[in-house]
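User: Please look over both lines:
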Amino acid sequence: MRVFTNPKIKWLFIQMILCILAFLFVSVLIMTGGFGIAAADLSIGIISVMAGAFLMGIGVLAVCYRYFRLQDKMMEDAVSQVRQFISGNRTARIVCDEEGEVFRLFHEVNSMAAILNAKADKEEKSRKFLQNMISDISHQLKTPLAALNIYNGILQAESETADLETVKEFADLSEKELDRIETLVQNFLKVAKFDAGTMVLEKQPENILEMMTDVKEQFLFRAGQEHKEIVLSGSEDSFLYCDRGWIVEAVGNIVKNALDHTKEGDCVRVDWSQSASVVKITVRDNGSGIHPEDLYHIFKRFYRSRYSKDIQGIGLGLPLAKFVVEAHNGTIEADSRLGEGTVFAMHFMIPTKL
């Protein structure tokens, strides 16, 4: 029986059986004259047996009382630990170092406490993340909003003097700041979706050349304006099992980062290759490079290098690219040399049927 897995209950029954056996043994001795009482003297024998029965009952009650007193103390200790946990002591646990159904219950209560702690930690991390994210977003929005206010004041002043050239210049600057705000908000929403686990990837085999052509066309006008070149290199027959829109987004963010850190006449190369088990996509530029101190932090949200001269970056493009690559069970790494350029390499495993 499972009730006897608890050694205390088992010992309780053993003690009660010993009391009964002791009573029976003493009764037999009394009834057979073992204590010098004549067998014929039944009245004395009966009184002796009744006295023995009374003593046996006292013994059984004493054993039961001791057992239930220990059980009551154990339950009080358990209730005390539960109350401490409810009051905020997250380390409070019920002692359950023995076997039995009650200790199984205590073990499950401890497991529930551990699960609640884990959920509380997760909620605390989410709260801190949201708090930091809102703080970072607010900080990032201050610069373009302040610039827009200045540009708007200048536009209002110049509109009175009808200086159309100045009006157009600051209208263009205002448009850039608005684009920057839109990019910031859109990237923030995308990162938030990944964090919340609500992003659904619709994967299917996609031609890599077609996807990289989409990336190139996205930045072709900017590259022309800045006199930079985007070069694609790879097989026309290479395919990647992925969500097309998100891969284009990820590679596009890396290409944008490359354009941000190159100067007039520089080149951004997008290469890809496919082996039996891996698809590799590489974005390479010959720009200013990344300082060694920053190389291990570039995928952190809103990270801004103290060596960077870039005032447009918002620090979400590369982290978003990392999210997308890892969501496709891939890896991304960067290698850079100051003054020589940077290489971002993405590796995607090709799913196989076993």
